[in-house]
Every structure is written in C-alpha cells, then in structure tokens.
Amino acid sequence: MRIDKFLTEMGICSRTEAAKAARIGGIAVDGKVVKKSDIHIDPNVNKITFLGREINYKKYTYIMLNKPDGYISATDDPREKTVLELLDDRHRRLGLFPCGRLDKNTLGLLILTNDGELCHKLLSPKHHVAKVYYFHSERMITDDDKKRLEAGVNLDGELTKPAKLELCDDKMSGRLTLTEGKFHQVKRMLEAVCNKITYLERVEFAGIPLDSSLERGQWRELTEAEENILKASGNPSAEK
Fold this sequence. Notes:
With 240 residues, the chain is α+β, with helices and mostly antiparallel strands. The protein contains seven helices and 17 strands. It has helices at 3-9, 15-23, 89-92, 116-123, 143-151, 185-192, 224-234; strands at 27-29, 32-33, 48-50, 53-55, 62-67, 71-72, 81-82, 97-98, 107-113, 131-137, 154-155, 158-159, 164-167, 173-178, 197-205, 208-209, 219-221. Strands 5, 8, 9, 10, 13, 14, 15, 16 and 17 form a nine-stranded mixed beta sheet that branches. A four-stranded antiparallel beta sheet has the order 2-1-3-4. A hairpin with a 2-residue loop joins strand 1 (27-29) and strand 2. Helix 1 packs across helix 2 (15-23) and helix 4 (116-123) packs across helix 7. The longest helix has 11 residues, at 224-234. The two termini are 35 Å apart.
C-alpha cells in the first residue's frame, strides 16, 4: 500500500496533504524520513510516523454513538443534521456509515463503521441480531397487550417476529427486545395495540450495551472486546 493511501484510509490527511508533508520531511518509515508519499509500505509491518505522530493501521473502525434527538441516521443530507456531523474531522474522513438506523427522534445506541460486510450481516434478517429498546408509552400496557406484542402483531399484512417485553412497575415503560428492524417498528407495534410511544431509546445492539458514561451526542471507538462481540453477532456460525 502506498503511504498516501495509508494516511488517507486512516483519516489523517488527503493525498495532496501527504505529498506536501513528505516534501518537508514530515513522514518517516521505520524511523527514516521519506521525501515521497507514493512509496509502498506494509502497514502491518512498517512503523509510519506523520508529523511526529505514529499512525497505527486499522482496517476497519467501529464507533458507539449515543444519538441525540434531531439527527438522522445518514451520511449526508442537504436539509437535516446527520449523525456523521457529531464526529471529529479525522473520523469523518474514514468513510463511516450507520449500521442500521434510528429514527430522527429516537435516542441511544447507534453503531457507525466502515466495515460494509459485517454491517450487512448484522442487519440480515437470518442472523436475528437482538436490539433492545427502553420506552415510555402513553397508557398502561395490559397483560393481553404484552402477549400480543411478544407473539407478533400485524404490520402491513405481516406479523412481527416474536419479541421479549419486560415491563416496569408502572406498566407504562419497559424494555422491548426485537430481532428485526422494520420501519418505525417499535412505534407501530405499540400503535397496533392502541397505544403510543412517548419516549424511545435504543440501549443495546448485538449484545453491546450503551455506555452509560456517554452523554447525548458523545461517542467512542469500541473496545477490542466489544468488537469481538459485534463480529460474533454477525457470524453466529463461527461460535459453533
């Protein structure tokens, strides 16, 4: 891989900026300054330094974002604020995109990545990746409502997959676990039992809980352990 391509993929700079940095002696390979940015390197073997900072190679990036209200799950939009706008400049250059989506007014855990293959697997219906939502409803959820929601309700002529509903003592809030991701699914499921969502937050995705230390709009890269959980969820057969 060329040095300029490596630096671009790591979100450090553009190829033009890499060439300028090389000309002024700002790039080193294994401690030796190089004057050209088109030199080929092995990012898994060579130590690359850019303007005095060592750049570690990572093929894919995985980010946990605590999505705030009013942002859409998209990479670009001419009218709305997108979740990518919450990232810093370097991470915005990495080609990240939301793994799945949360509605504009839904809060909580959203995974951003540039690993398209894993994202496709995580969102594939055949893998049944669990998503957990905490919600408040407009009125109390009866025992009959709970049975219907867990067994599956009719949305546009199709039954939702079996779900798990854990209600709080007030019977107007709780945690709903789904293994699919239909459009506005949680809101529509409550509407199917003549109720309405008044607050909705995703608190877990693919076995990874939302980091309680993250304020709304804050984010961090996944830990190695969390990355392994995410990859195992996308490749369930690998655990067998």
